[in-house]
Amino acid sequence: MKAILQRVLSASVTVDKEVVSSIGKGVLVFAAVAPGDTQKEADSLAAKVLKMKLWDDDAGSKWKYSVSEIGGEVLCVSQFTLLASTKKGNKPDFHGAAGGDEARQLYQHFVQKVQQGYTADKVQQGVFQAMMEVALVNDGPVTLEITATPPADAKAAKKPKPSPSPVSAPPA
Fold first, then answer.
1. Catalytic residue check, 14
2. Angle at which helices 39-51 and 100-117 pack, to 10 degrees?
3. Catalytic pick from 14, 38, 81, 149?
4. DSSP the chain
5. Distance of CA 3 to the CA centre of its chain
6. Pick from 4, 30, 6: which is nearest to 137 by CA?
7. pTM for the full predicted model
8. How does pLDDT run along the chain (172 residues), one tens digit per residue?
9. Do residues 76 and 134 touch, judged by C-beta distance below 8 A?
């Protein structure tokens, strides 16, 4: 999974000319689900969203407080285009993004984990697979990319070490 975090003074999502969610000071999260992502990655990403130190303290020390520590709000927006590949030609390739039901289920799990890890009424979301108008007032601006990737295949990660053959072993 991948997310873009933006520290905001305010943000909102409009669908079909109707504001469906809005927040004040906090974090706008654009999140994308990749094929192979699991609940473990969603859990990890949700924890990172809530724990990332994006605000200064009153003494001016930088990067001291997270969204939950300042009592801010969180707006989660699904955005599969974060996983586009633009390596070939001028048309984005979206094969790096998970499809429909798989993406919806894992994205909803991610949002639930953000709500469970914080205060549910301070966490809003857009509308999955809708054409959304996202408005925001950046604070800083501060924009970070965070990822949570599934572990490599266990078999590939634990290749057995070859034992020396009697023919190639040095003489004793």
1. no
2. 40
3. 81
4. -EEEEEEEEEEEEEETTEEEEEESSEEEEEEE--TT--HHHHHHHHHHHHH---B--TT--SS-B-TTTTT-EEEEEE-GGGG-B-SSSSS-B-TTS--HHHHHHHHHHHHHHHHHHS-GGGEEE--TTS--EEEEEEEEEEEEEEE--PPPPHHHHTPPPPPPPTTTSPP-
5. 3
6. 6
7. 0.84
8. 999 999 999 999 999 999 999 999 999 999 999 999 999 999 999 999 999 999 999 998 999 999 999 999 999 999 999 999 999 889 998 989 998 899 999 999 999 999 999 999 999 999 999 999 999 999 999 999 999 977 665 444 445 555 454 555 455 5
9. no
Give me the amino acid identity at 46.
A
